[in-house]
Amino acid sequence: MSRSAERRIALVETGDAHIAVELDAEGTELGRRTLARDDAHVWIASVEETSSPRWVIRSAREAYPRLLHAGARLGRTHDLVLCHAILRDTALLAEPLAASRLWMPTTTEVEQPTLFDALIAETEHDPVDEVLQQYRAQLRALSSAPDGRLALLCAAESAGGLVAEEMRAGGLPWDAVTHDRILVDTLGERRMGGVPARMAELAQSVRTELGDEQVNLDSQQKLLRALHRVGVLAESTSRWELAEFDHPAVAPLLAYKKLARLLSANGWTWLADWVQDGRFRPVYIPGGVVTGRWASAGGGALQLPRMLRPAVRADPGWRLIVADVAQLEPRMLAAMARDEAMAQAARGSDLYAGVVESGAVATREEAKYAVLGAMYGATTGDSGRLVPRLRKVYPKAMRLVDDAARTGEDGGVVSTWLGRSSPKPPPAWLAMQAAASGADATAAVVREAQRRARDRGRFTRNFIVQGTAAEWSLIWLAEIRHRLRALPAAATPATASGPFAQAAHLAFFLHDEVILHVPAESAEHAADAVREAAAVATERLFGSFPLDVPLDLRVAETAEK
DNA sequence: AGAAGTTGCGCG
DNA sequence: AAAGCGCGCAACTTCT
Length: 561
Prior knowledge:
The protein has helices spanning 40-51, 60-70, 80-89, 115-122, 127-143, 149-170, 176-187, 197-210, 220-229, 239-242, 250-266, 268-274, 328-336, 340-345, 351-357, 364-376, 381-393, 395-409, 427-437, 443-484, 523-542; strands at 8-13, 17-23, 29-36, 54-57, 76-79, 172-173, 275-276, 279-280, 283-285, 295-297, 318-325, 505-509, 513-519, 551-556. By secondary structure, the chain is α+β, with helices and mostly antiparallel strands. Strand 1 and strand 2 form a beta hairpin.
């Protein structure tokens, strides 16, 4: 469908109603209607079915949960809050979108009203006018772009906003019984008013070996002092440092710390707080990371521990599709830099094996550290030592990241493939650099400024790669979602009610991995959808440049790795 | 007593 | 084993 043929409808929530405003391609109003809050979803669903418009909304985060709950799904949106952040900061536009506090994400905390807010309140506009004005401003910004990249990014980001809410509504199927069994098997029997049995035994062993029956193992300071008393002269209580010491307290201590971590991060309290009706529902925050990666709030969705993956279990009659991309970031780098040699190494499922084949390094481990070091800016250690070898074999790719690093060191801004730009350095950073370049700068100030400049360089170096990988993933998600909507309703309903009780849905997303929850009879079609979506994402970003982005995909009952 | 900062861990 | 990017969270410690 061509863009101009696309129907656009702004959907604005007012106190007790929704106003739907029909728009043309420039955002000019063609007509409007008022919908009572309680049955807006009926009209929306019918319009969705007959003409699948692009809905212009303030924010999916704010508006979509209620619609989903009422039974209306939105196909495509333009999310003004998400797109405002992109168009405001992008370096691709000579004249970026004007920043406005009105279009920042609303925070949940109640903030003290500022003078600025008071000013806004005084001059408050009609909410419909505000939406239309902002949309027109964003359309103007997009029409001044040199190519379609920012428009693609805005569309993908908006789709991400929908996916995030739909994933929360659908939830990740979570088997509390399996989770509990893992906890008991690992931590020992749960005991009222104390730590679980096995943890208690380990703690006892540690205290005995330390000759201190009282020491609190969860206090770094007290633990460190106790260790020093028995001759373990570690500087911190971190795992890798303790492992260096040969003392009988070390082994049980490391085991205890591992269990303590599981208990506090994903123990019974977490299970009770975050799993209801057999679903884990974290809050996803699209664009929550400066690079464009998603953040999460609550539930620790960014740290789903490997150990607990067996608790991710499909409902009866349903399956999980578990898919991830191996080495997404270096693949993105190869294509961004149009580095044919690196793309050649990326042919097939293991990029690191390809790097070894190219002769740059001898082993797969070396390849891994060299490639990670190139993207992260390692300068010392094994990783730093290997990076120069990549410069010989992949000069184009290395020039791209090296240039990004230099731009950052100089205080500049870099952009991802689709045009999301890094934040400008903060005033304190600029002040430090200015101070260091003054005639009276001390050696210490100069040294510190150089260190901070290198920090900045490593950030911008990584930004372009991490951010472009996030863009690939966004398109992947959007294309998966699009294809899932065509699948038939489930033969067996899911165990949890809600908008996805009978529909295949995205259930989890983490940077380069997705988990889908799908009716068993649709599993193969859903798997195909995930594969097709990956191919489309690569093609949308890089056109005909030959880049492999292979998936590790399986259809299973659990998400076990 | 509660806010703010630090440490350590686990995820990509 | 490493020490290079990006996160969230819990528990402890220090500050107010």
